[in-house]
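# nightly structure sweep
# worker-07 picked up a monomer target from the shared queue
# config: single-sequence mode, recycle default, output format = structure tokens
# input follows
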Amino acid sequence: MNRILKEDAKVIAQTLVNWEKFHNKTILIAGANGYVPQHFVHGFLMRNTLYQENIHVVALCRNERKAKERFGEYLDRKDFTLVIGDVLEEMKFEKKLDFIIDAASPAGVKASNENPVATFEANVMGCGNLLKLAQYHHAEFLYLSSVDIYGKKEEERFIEDRPGILDSLDVRNVYAEAKRAAENLCVCYGQKGVVCKIVRPGQIMGGGIAPGDGRLHIDFISQILKTDKIILKGDGTPVRTFIYITDAIAGMLSVMDRGNAGEAYNICAETGETSVLGLARLMAGQVKSRNISVEFNEETRKTDPAVRHAVSRVCASSEKLRGLGWNPQISLEESCRRMMDYYQVPL
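# output follows
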């Protein structure tokens, strides 16, 4: 395993939650191949290695080749089961499931733009199939939503009980609209007795994102690896909230452990707020071996729809999550360093 992934897995395995809740339990992670959910797999299995919790991890993935690359070292472990399947298909598991984590969704602007139908179906219909499975097994359910559900708001901080405006007739909103619909489906199944909890992550930094994913941080790293420039498509003023993967997973585990059923929790860290330009300069500044300049593409400011329609501020409040006893441990600067270390950026 990559050194950074292994170190992060150990941090996750030592998260201050009531691990007795997961002891001897079976946890299905849907979409486990994804950048964020893979860290649940690594963290739970590291917990077993360090503390013999006997957590059985079932990783549900669509792409077998990718899954075997991600989790190859676990294939012979008795506490790990790899299942190749699609959340859009009916699923049956003979073994009792105690928890289901639904992270099955195309992620990133590029994926949503290229196939909006698949994005909507995976989030809504796929979530529905997993909720039926949770109902059958009497399993607790965690849904990974997104701060994108807040839409356009003029508030300094997004708070869980105050959603913003989304235009349902704009295909660019498919990811956010699908997440909203899936959240509502979770609440509906909550009335049927399924214990459902929802998390809304902001921008999560760490190792494992595909280089062409399209998110800001991996885009900047990809540029640094290829050239001595970071070129911004816009004016760099939009503000976003970034959180390191270990803090994000710790927050989600806290919600699984102590969160209230039928409620949503932002997964963010106010200390990780910065502008697009600020993040570019921070990453460029980590590279001491070269002079990385930050420049602007004047043409994309006018022609790229994603730039022209970008929300100026996407920053959420972590107050509700901190009320569960969680606090972030990794600074934005350290997040950048660890992520750049993972992708072997010469610093």
